[in-house]
Amino acid sequence: MAANPALFDATVRHAVLLEQLKANEVAKFAPFLKELDRKIRAKLSDPDITEYNRKRQEKLLDQIDSILLAIFGRFTDQLQLDLVDLAMYEAQFEASSLNNAAAVATADTAVAVTFEAVLPGAAAIKAAITTNPLSVRGVDGGKLLEAFIEGWTQTERQRVVGAIRQGFFEGQTTTQIIQAIRGTKAQQYKDGILAVTDRNASAVVRTAVQHVASQARMETLKANSDVVKEVEWVSTLDSRTTITCKTLDGQRFPVDSGPRPPIHINCRSTVVPITKFSKLFSQGATRASKGADGGKQVSASLSYYEWLKTQPASFQDQALGVARAKLFRDGGLSAERFAQMQLDRNFSPLTLEEIRQLEPLAFERAGI
């Protein structure tokens, strides 16, 4: 069975809109970051602060940590509410997409398709986003949504308080301590600890949004497992896509098992349902790509590596790295075989040396 064009196009367009929603959600952190900056500076405003004894310094640090806890708490409370609203919307989107796909099947083929998608209840959707672990690999792998978000806030609080404590220990001036927190004007305040907090907030929010959208959609698909048997992984066709998502692109998994986006922090991939009435559709779905010549539509049947074969060597080098790209071009490997060698059974990228053990002749042919 193939993914039908209407369902594929709707899902990919929706993924683009989801990226815009992520940006909007990230922007909501800005006023909280300004409040952090303002209140930390206020607590460090006493010019004699570096002369405090150890007990008094620790009391001040406890006060600052309490301020951070309160500010982060208000932000994450707002984020959690937004994520629940998003989950309900995503579940409804998936149900509507399935209904529309069935309607298009009837219109395009004159074959009557009687189908009404089942929409899971709100409790089931909320349970899915909160009790299903994130699929990301690495240190955040397997975390539940709440723990993932709380882990970030705890790390940021420890980083700020630790920097101030270190400043006290090293005898830094109040100005130096504040500068370490805020950064320098010459660097547009991008070299301070709060800049790290801001970047990490973006990564956490984007990943949380992706997890919620993915799990809510999957809950709807599983509720319609009489029609949806599989999902197909769809990655973004550009040079920023990770090795993991490049390789997963086009792979199919049962509707109730297998990896789901986000597979890593800041993941942009999505999945498209493969329905039992997909065979009623003609081919013709397209997907957006951004190669060396800019953005264009290409056949949805192309996997990432098949698409990359159409790009010039310079773009392949940018997307894969010079050595891996040379193997890709000159190793005599098909796009399918190259993809098979990129990940281990846990979907973690293999090193070039590990790949060499699998295909030593390909390395000889490529001269690496």
TrEMBL record:
Among InterPro entries, the record links this protein to: Phage_head_morphogenesis_dom, Phage_head_put
What highest taxon heads this organism's lineage?
A: Bacteria
Annotated Pfam families: Phage_Mu_F
- Where the record annotates domain Phage head morphogenesis, the positions are 160-271
Name the UniProt record assigns to this protein: SPP1 gp7 family putative phage head morphogenesis protein
Q: Which organism is it from?
A: Pseudomonas duriflava
